[in-house]
Please model this.
Amino acid sequence: MQSLIIVSNRLPVTVGKTIEKSSGGMVSALEALEDSIDFRWVGWAGGAIDDPGRREEISRELESRFNFFPLFLNRGEADAYYTGFSNSSLWPLLHYMPTKARFRKHWFEKYREVNQRFAEAVLQHAGEADVVWIQDYHLMLLPAMLREKRPDMRIGFFLHTPFPSYEIFRCLPARREILQGLLGADLIGFHTFGYLRHFRSTVLRLLGFESEIDRIAHNSHQTHMGVYPIGINASKFSTILAGPEYAARLETYRDTYADKNIVLGVERLDYTKGVSQRLDAIERFLAQTGRRDVVFIFICVPSRENVPEYRELRQLVERKVSRINGKYSSPVSAPVHFIHRSVKPDELCALYTLADAAIVTPLMDGMNLVAKEYVFCQREKYGQLILSEFAGAAQELYNAHIVNPYDIQAIADALQEILKMPPQRRRRRLEPMQKKVARYDARFWAESFLNALAAADVNIAAEPAARPLVEETVRPLLSGRPAALFLDYDGTLAELVPKPDDAAPAGATARLLSLLQQQTQLEVFIIGGRSRQEMARWFGGRGFHLIAEHGYCCRENDSREWEVLAPDTDLSWKAQIMDFLELFAGTTPGSFLEEKTASVVWHYGSADPEYGSWKAHQLVSQLQEMLSNLPVSIHHAKKVVEIVSLDVNKGIAVSHFMNKHQYAAALCAGDDETDEAMFRLEDDRMISLKVGAEAQTAADFYIPTPARFRSFLQRMLSGGDIAGEPLLLLPVKASGQKLGIR
Model:
């Protein structure tokens, strides 16, 4: 039997003097799978329980009765992690309400700490073959935390809210950390394709990871994405509808509202639910129609009343209800019945059944199961659903009356249409939705997600048997005979950044350069496409040989003089293309030109990634036509298009120094197309190494990231075991393409 660990912010229990299991969509979905899955649940027990004895007692009871494993948060942790970052920072942004979002640095720090505590709890209870399924926005850092400790673990994440557009999500100060946390998952599930599309776009624009429609490749791992609309627990609702409590409630409500049309609204009292706008629409409906035979029942479950925005919302709603009832009440009835409490399932189902219409008009909602529950429970009147186009359910319940929740008149008009609609037409609209809701229920949702998680291919490449580079190839570099390192900088020793000036040596890169500076048995060449002035400013004074502008000029051992390696280079072509390149730079916001002696570079790393990529392909295509008879080559590398003289390349420069100094061995490392000239050198003394994930290269070996390459060099130069996990370099030339890496 498959073993599954569910992780959610709260355990589905109510802890008081006694412990009672609560119900909900997630619980119901999993209960339906108990015959095929052995599942455990990790989550917060709720509240602030500080007494160690009581904590131990609760833990014991939850584990023995339900297989639940609780975390306990003190009041400060709950305030910062839950009320603060989760619900005052993330929640409003995820629902397109940035003006309601508030940010505090310590909220996010506590959010990270609590996510780490969740990770420790999961790792404590997870076996080797266990699958972990993480739920919702409270735990967005958790997937990466688990991945770091258990790379083998199968991890799913489901987001029950919308995922907003990049323009909204980027308001979050911790935006990159949140995305990196989510990408630790093997599969991320969304309610709609729109949310998935926004996530892909945001990852591209903030992290630079390109993606296919259903997966994102990053750091030798693939995160899959999918659309899994959650459903209701249809069997549970069927049981309620067949029960005596429901029947009794239904008769009571029939008598109470015998001469009324019922319009129902059910939701948490939350500013995302559009309650205020709905009341405005009801007031307009009453003013325009003068009808007194309609009663509006609003069930608004209390929510987050310790958050100021929610207290203000309740006061606003109560004022509007009072105003409407004051204007349109009769001596025996009021048009709006405002119920600010939870209701029992049999009460709710009876109202669902009896209501002529339901108004479900959130301003933004991940799914909204109320819409599906109402449709399922209709048994008598073929009730009609007024549904916001901004609810996830609108993509499935296409026969509902879809409205813009901000359009007050449209909601009022939909109410008038529904209450005049003949029974046969009501039936034709309702029945297809009922079949859909009954078929695609909570069990279907859970099974679909878990099956996709089990089938997800998360490794970018197959992992063949690797051979440790140190034992077979690197040893000549360390033999004591003259040897050299030819090291590209951008993308090889240091990560690529959108703004080239931001790539100055710092942190781990600076520490590695200091280690290289201490080497006496190796000559170190730093190679780059940067200008000689920039190379001297960043790397001068360290005793390195510098090769600038992709091999156009060099400076040995901190000499002050630069030597031009190709003095006869024809550079007349530059004047012919500068105006054309300036046009591209001027029409692509975020891009700029960099002119060097033997090359011109168009940088577009700060441009919108999709627009910049499209413009880059246009530029390359037009340049190939313009320059076809001129002595230049065009390189489209990572976020740059570079035009460089044919007489200049890194291979020529490396060959020059290999022959000049007669090195017994050398390692050359680079990351892009401009480095392939080094890799293609026919020299048995040379070891070539590609840094990056491109499939085709002339290099002998590859390693996926600059961070891994820095680690490799550090271990090699410090006498460490390069063959140790996780750093194994794999040959690529054997099959003409990359084979993979651990």
In short: The first strand starts at residue 2 and ends at 10. Residues 462-468, 723-728, 734-742 have pLDDT under 50 and may be disordered. The longest helix spans residues 105-125.
